[in-house]
Amino acid sequence: MKRIGIITSGGDAPGTNACIRTVARRCFYDGVELVGIFDSWDGLLADKVRLLTRDDVTGIVQTAGTILRSSRSRLFLAPGDAEIAKTALAKHGIEGMVVIGGNGSQVATSILADSGFPCVGVPKTIDNDLAGTELTVGFLTAVEMCTHALDNLRATAESHNRVMVVEVMGRNVGWIAVESAIAGGADLALIPEFPFSVDEVCDKIRTRHTTYGRNYSIIVIAEGAVDRDGVIDPKSNVQDKLGRPKLGGVGPMLAREIEERLGYDARNTTLGYLQRSAAPVASDRILATRVSDKAYDLLQGGQSGMLAGLAGREVKAVALKDIVGKEKRVTKSWARLAELFG
To answer: Which end of the chain is more exposed for a tag (fewer CB within 10 A), N or C?
Structure first.
């Protein structure tokens, strides 16, 4: 292929620019034109497309966000959308695509590949919920940011005898919550995979304070954590662009319940987009480089419909048809680690 396209789709994640830079450097070395598609698939349909140059990708390996910008598009949700995309790609002479994104993005990649257009995927999402890879670009930085926040909040929690509730991202899976809780020594991690009870949370906090003599506690809760008793519901009536209920607010709700039931001073901190916006840590930059390098080889080698996924220490080709529609969820063993060693 002498002219390929690159796109970033879904939520931004630290390390995305390192992915773009890697593919660009491979293209420049091989004499291949790299076409940047801006503002995701909606940008393609709006002709927000141009060749990327060396100046575009110089000095971006350490920057957050994506120089191509991103969004969650509704393209590929309806039958026939693949043909619309193929027509737009052909208009710009694009022969194949590298798609950098998470679950929804790789569903689109798979659909486009199945329609006969050469496409490969690069795993990028801070949630780390994409099947077929042990790690996704952006996740390690998000965990690092949350861990730093827990380290800092511990000081004010201890100084004021407070229960600190820290709400982190995680709509359907709790990888960020669990791993940051382990690294930051949190006392509880509440995640979507294992519904919690406010009564049980309060019992654990009370025991910690009265039996063990601790004057503060730290709880990490994923935004999509489920209260099995229905006391707390993070889902709102407002929907996002893809028709999903917008989440947020489970942390303040839990803090209020703890304060009312136990009489402890309880405060919430919602980390929100701070988890996405940090400069990528070294491990994310390296992961981004390795998976993107592999994705370029897959595309040029005619292996369409593949994801460049991390398996142990190696990056391997994973068939998208085997992983789309699946989520990599937190296991009981990981949840146990958070419970015992948080």
So the answer is: N
The three-state secondary structure class of 175 is helix
Tokens of 340: 């015992």
**Is 127 a catalytic site residue?**
yes
Say how many C-beta atoms besides its own lie within 10 A of residue 203's C-beta: 13
Contact criterion met (CB below 8 Å) for 71 and 86: no
Place of tokens 């980390």: 271
Q: Where are the chain's structural domains?
A: 3-138+280-322, 141-276
Q: How far is CA 206 from CA 9, 68, 69, 221, in A?
A: 44, 49, 46, 18
- Do domains 3-138+280-322 and 141-276 share one topology? The answer is yes
**Per-residue pLDDT at 245 exceeds 80:** no
Gap between the terminal Cα atoms of the chain:
50
Assign domain 141-276 to its CATH superfamily: Phosphofructokinase domain (3.40.50.460)
**Exposed, middle or buried: residue 337 (CB in 10 Å: 0-12, 13-18, 19+)?**
middle
Residue 289 to residue 308: CA distance in whole angstroms: 11
Q: What residue has token string 């486009």? A: 112
Of the residues 12, 39, 127, 227, only one is catalytic, namely 127
As a whole number of Å, the CA-based R_g of the chain is 21
Task: Give the pLDDT confidence score for residue 341 in this predicted structure.
Answer: 75
Which numeric CATH code is attached to 3-138+280-322? 3.40.50.450
Residue 21: CA count within 13 A, CB half-sphere: 21
* Buried b or exposed e, range 89-123, using 16+ CB within 10 angstroms: beeeebbbbbbbbbbbbbbbbbbbbeeebbbbbbb
**Distance, CA of 206 to chain centre:** 34
Model confidence over 271-314: pLDDT tens digits?
999 999 999 999 999 999 999 999 999 999 999 999 999 999 99
Reading the block at residue 36, the tokens are 């940047």
DSSP 231: S
